[in-house]
Each structure stands twice: as structure tokens, then as C-alpha cells.
């Protein structure tokens, strides 16, 4: 709105800043939770957007411009988290192991 470089990105209709925390609590959180996901807040949302854009092929400078960061190193160091296939595979194995452990634990509790 107004100046695209410094103007308000989300406004309430009258040119004032929109209360994003209130919008997150009233609209975004219920929508996310209806999908059986957890809402971790705007920072996590922006990190997810940055990481996914980067994974889809957007370069760091484009991601920086979308997030409207003044410094490219902030985007690269704090927002873009590259997906490492080895880490994802290890976490999947851990998840499966924990699920198996939970099932065994539930069975043992039933026997007792």
C-alpha cells in the first residue's frame, strides 16, 4: 500500500497496520489446526516459506526480497533451512522406532 518499498504490506483497510498476532489467533491458527497441524507462529511460518521457496529453486536474493529483509545474510542464516535428505531419512527412522516403542509399551501396560 502506498510505497512498495516501505509501505504497509498488510493493512486494515484504512492504511493502518493490521494486527497480525490477532489475525493469527482468530483466523490462521484455527485453519491450521483444522488440518490437524500445529501453529507455531509467524516466525515459523516465514521460515517455512523461505525454506520451501529455496527448495523449489528460488535463489537467496529472491527469498530475501519476498520476505522484505534489508540484509541478505539475515534471510540466509536465520530463515532458509535447506532440506538434507540424510537428516530427513534419519528422522523418519527415529519416528518409526519411537512409534514401535510406543506400541510395545502400550502392549506391556495392557499385560500388567
Describe this structure in words.
The chain has 112 residues and is mainly α. The protein has a domain of 29 residues. 64% of the residues lie in helices and 0% in strands. The protein contains five helices and no strands. The chain is flat, with a radius of gyration of 20 Å. The relative contact order is 0.07.
List the helices and strands and how they pair.
Layout: H1 20-34, H2 42-55, H3 60-67, H4 72-79, H5 85-111
Helix pairs in contact: 2-3, 3-4
Shape: flat
Topology as a string of helices (H) and strands (E): HHHHH
Regarding quaternary structure, what we see is single chain
Strand content: under 5%
Q: Which secondary-structure class do the elements indicate?
A: mainly alpha
Radius of gyration, in angstroms, nearest whole number: 20 Å
Number of helical runs?
A: 5
Distance between the termini: 65 Å
Biggest β-sheet description: none
Percent range for helical residues? 55-70%
**How many DSSP-defined strands?**
0
Give the averaged pLDDT, no decimals.
Answer: 84
Unreliable spans are none
Question: In a few lines, what is going on in this structure?
Answer:
By secondary structure, this protein is mostly helical. Helices cover 64% and strands 0% of the residues. It is flat.
Amino acid at each position: 500500500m502506498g510505497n512498495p518499498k516501505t509501505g504497509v504490506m498488510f493493512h486494515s483497510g484504512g492504511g493502518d497496520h493490521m494486527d497480525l498476532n490477532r489475525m493469527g489467533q482468530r483466523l490462521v491458527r484455527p485453519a491450521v489446526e483444522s488440518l490437524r497441524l500445529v501453529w507455531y507462529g509467524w516466525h515459523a511460518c516465514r521460515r517455512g516459506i523461505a525454506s520451501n521457496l529455496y527448495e523449489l529453486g528460488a535463489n537467496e536474493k529472491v527469498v530475501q526480497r519476498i520476505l522484505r529483509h534489508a540484509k541478505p545474510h539475515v534471510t540466509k542464516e536465520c530463515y532458509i533451512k535447506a532440506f538434507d535428505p540424510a537428516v530427513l531419512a534419519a528422522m523418519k527412522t527415529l519416528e518409526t522406532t519411537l512409534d514401535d516403542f510406543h506400541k510395545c509399551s502400550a502392549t506391556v501396560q495392557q499385560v500388567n
